[in-house]
Amino acid sequence: MSVTYHRDGAVGIITIANPPVNAMSLAVRSGLMDAAAAFATDDQALSGVILCDGRTWVAGADISEFGKPPIQPFLPDVIDTIERLEKPVVAAFHGTALGGGLELALGAHARIAAPAARMGLPEVTLGLLPGAGGTQRVPRLAGLKAALEMITSARQVPASEAQELGLIDRIATGDLTQDAMAFARELAGSTPRRTGDLPTPDNDPALVADIKASLARKVPGQIAQARAVDAVVEGLGVPLAEGMAQERAKFQELMQTPQRAAMIHAFFSERAVAQLPEIADVKPRVFDRIGVIGGGTMGAGIAVSALLAGLDVTLIERDDAAAEKAAAGVAKILEGSVKRGKLRADKCDAILANSFRAAGDYAALAQADLIIEAVFEKMEVKEDVFTRLDAIAKPGAILATNTSYLDVNRIAAVTSRPQDVIGLHFFSPAHVMRLLEVVVADHTAPDVTATGFALARKLKKIAVRAGVCDGFIGNRILSHYRMAADAMVLDGASPYQIDRALTDFGFAMGPYAVSDLAGLDIGYFTRQRKAADLHPRDRVPVFADRLYEQGHLGRKSGQGYYIYDADSPNGRQDPALAGLLEQVRADLGITPRDFTDAEIVARYMAAMVNESARVVQDGIALRPLDVDVVLLNGYGFPRWRGGPLHWADHQGLASIVADIETFAETDDHYWQVAPLLRDLAQQGRSFAALNEGKPA
Ligand code: 3H9
């Protein structure tokens, strides 16, 4: 039974138990209707309490039911039934009250929360709006501004703030259940205070216009936020039922959109990536003591990420002076977190005093459980590090490389313990970016892989399993679609037009702004490394080499594709770039042509999908969804488009194959349809079909 009713003295108690997060499935909705009826007819019960078993209050509607035909009772009706009860009911919540969970609590007549409880309306992150009264009841309790902010940002509000906003009445000081029952006893005999009967706040057109303008800047392309604002505004000054009807219509409209399907695909895929048969019953190794080798941007970020997760970190640099400098870098990042209010000052001091040290000698890693190397991206350097690690690391210690391209099998081969070697590819800045590629080499032991995933969980990151190849999942696909962009520049497109077309599509940044951020030296050295493997028909981005040779290294040198200075810290176009491009094209004998934004997007996306298909076919990614999660979390792919392979399904695989065949008319070396993509298109199947039947 997912919902039960019993009475304790004069208090009727409704308990929801639907692990793991008490989502409001059909069984819970029906159970709540039955329990509400049992409470209403229980003459001995003078007031009631709604509680949840397990680790959290209701985390929302059951997302796995979305996209299927809805079955009654619908959630808004369940909440309405509770609000209309003749006896007062107290919602008592712990954990997170999210979406429909918060909406259920707002339908009760009073609310008490555990001190650590948080609440929010995350529906817009799923391409939806709060559809069970959130857009109507939150403004009535918290006012228009707070409601619009909460709903459009999806921010989780801590209990203390929720109390100030008027969303909850009390914070429990002792046992939540006992405090809730005492509250219910106080309310016994009183008229239920129905949120829906409260007056709405007045409209504030200037505020609404401001919020809409800021949404257009912050979440361009997304529709749910603006619809949510409309639902709130249309509910002002009208009775609850009228506002609810408008909310419901908009909710159902959003439910039918590709954005909703894409964002829910992203939600479930981000959880499915951790479900791997090879580690299903495997216990991870202990990883309390972490070693990090290299105190540059990457090493420092990894160290900070581990420290913030409560792990002990020893950072190694080549000598004591470098170690001291690296330690200062780590301290600076942590202090930055204090300044931004993300970390308490005393906690920062405690971390630096007790959990962190930097040294100039590998011997300091003798007791480390897991050592992550983040040194210069060159095979000989990595081989030297792993030879030294093999000599000092204790038996069973995990030796991880943070390489972003190099062959993990070759690195493992220099050690006497390849079973303990793995790739842990963090993304920069490592204390911010959520993605971790766990690169499983030929001899990596299953419990080492399991530890990679356990580490990611501990660091609150999303781990995706990748096989060994040049660039693993993300950078391999990036190298390929980047070539499509560079070819367009060679043929006449401006890097600025390409960046704009792709940010208009929804990418966080265009490829040339990304180059400036990463540093133009990175691409230059990668091209040098791969020069020997070049095919005579591969097209080399000579313009990128020229920029590097002129000392344009990107943001760090103040100039790359864009110019960065005090007036334009985020970059402005460089008028000299057009001349450089003209010269390069003339040298290569290319007559430049124009590209439309639509063609830029079509070429870039076809290249991305094509290489993604090869990555799945080669087993580098287990499933299409693993590719989507990598691109969404490491490469700025718009979440509301669900990832490249979800997008491809939506677009129609046959049309992408047709595009590639058209592009191949002028370059049949680069544009070759991946066999998997061609097969799926010919069979009328989708990438989604490959997600099914595999661990999902
Ligand atoms: C909504 O409410 C609409 C209403 O306004 C209107 C309706 C008419 N449903 O994340 P975890 C699963 S929209 C179904 O790993 P954590 C999840 O897939 C909803 N399943 O745990 C996973 O399954 P598995 C608004 C759900 O502790 C397992 O539970 N609500 C749901 O890291 C554990 O999840 C949201 O958007 C769900 N609602 O984080 C909240 N939620 O083990 C979404 C979770 O098989 N949920 N699952 O992989 C969350 O943000 C996090 O899950 C939460 C716990 C913070 C609650």
Helices and strands, with pairings:
Layout: E1 3-8, E2 11-16, H1 26-41, E3 47-52, H2 75-83, E4 89-93, E5 96-98, H3 100-107, E6 110-113, E7 118-120, H4 134-142, H5 144-153, E8 157-158, H6 159-165, E9 170-171, H7 176-187, H8 205-218, H9 224-234, H10 240-255, H11 258-272, E10 289-293, H12 297-308, E11 312-316, H13 320-339, H14 345-355, E12 356-359, E13 370-373, H15 379-392, E14 398-401, H16 408-413, E15 421-426, E16 435-439, H17 446-458, E17 462-466, H18 474-491, H19 495-505, H20 511-518, H21 520-530, H22 542-549, E18 562-563, E19 572-573, H23 577-588, H24 597-617, H25 624-634, H26 644-651, H27 653-664, H28 675-682, H29 687-691
Parallel strand pairs: 2-3, 3-4, 4-6, 5-7, 6-9, 10-11, 10-13, 11-12, 13-14, 14-15, 16-17
Antiparallel strand pairs: 1-2, 7-8, 15-16, 18-19
Helix pairs in contact: 1-2, 2-3, 4-5, 5-8, 5-9, 8-9, 9-10, 11-25, 12-13, 18-24, 19-24, 20-21, 21-22, 24-27
The chain binds (S)-3-Hydroxyhexanoyl-CoA (3H9).
